[in-house]
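Quick one: structure for this chain?
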Amino acid sequence: MKKLIVGLLACIVVVSTSGAESTALKNGVGWGFQINQYQDDFGLGLTMTSPYVRDAFAFRLRGNLMFNENVRVNETDWDSYYNFTAGLVGVAGTVNESIRLYGEGGLIGLFPSSKFSGDAFILGGYGLFGFEFHMDARRNYFIELGGVGTDARKDKIPNRPIYSNGMLISTGFRITL
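Got it. Here's what it folds into:
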């Protein structure tokens, strides 16, 4: 039993230290693709991140094509609309140069569908916590969780339900050039 425990501990040490000779994360312009959900709306989008300043903060722009489900007479349908964000990313820390933890917040602009809204443009805010999982110095997968507040309402739909408010979930891939 003692040999088994020592063997398992040795394996854990080897696995946990492999890759410890990590390369510093590349600092350049980052481009990415994301799949997201803003409240109940599904979306696909592109993102651009500026180079990090002192490995502490960066600026991020994002554009998404969103799909909102609406009930019509005897059927449901998805109506598309767009959102754009401009925010500041603040790095909370890194783990072994392979995981970056960050917070992000900024402005969100909506361009609603004329099928459900009489508004041409709606401005709001968002905030999130993010986790980047780096495969190497240039490529990472990310997960972001946060909230969005726009006070957007579907004023052409009965009861004027809200949309693009509440929970924000995003995941995707980024590459730094």
